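debug: dumping io for the single-chain case to check the tokenizer round-trip. Nothing else runs in this session.
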Amino acid sequence: MMAANANIGVARAAYFPTITLGAHAGFQSTGYSNWLSAPSSFWAIGPNALLSVFDGGLRRAQVAQARAEFDASAAYYRSTVVTAFQQVEDNLATLNHYHDAAAEEKVGRRGAADAQRRHGALQAGCNRLSHRRHLADRPLANAAPGAQSRYHAAQRQRQSHPCARRRLGGFDESAER
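debug: decoded output
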């Protein structure tokens, strides 16, 4: 981009005349014998100025071309910078997404561990309840009819217990009645 900017200056410099300082020296004589004598030597020192009077728009076109090259170079540089910022932003967004996913996974693992702990406690409680029911079933065969109705009331109460509903897979008999 800096070179393209310098090329604009070079193209604009063509508008100004070219000034040079020149020197000429030599010998001139009509015969070979007088060449190296002092009267046959000559010299000249002086400036030269060169300026084109008519160029047909060449200089203006060269300046326009240099400016167009600079604009193209600046657009390419801008594009490169924007692409770099976009890649950085994409990487930061991906990093943020992975951070959020890791946090959600951590919450999910805690919830799963908590649910597993509660399930174990619930299973232990349901197993104790089931064990008590089996113990209560043994004397029922020899019990009086009143004891049997009390047993059936207790059994209905146990069925409405959350452990029993959970053991049935969430099925709730009272919801269908």
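debug: round-trip ok. The helical segments are 2-13, 58-137, 145-159, 162-167, 173-176.
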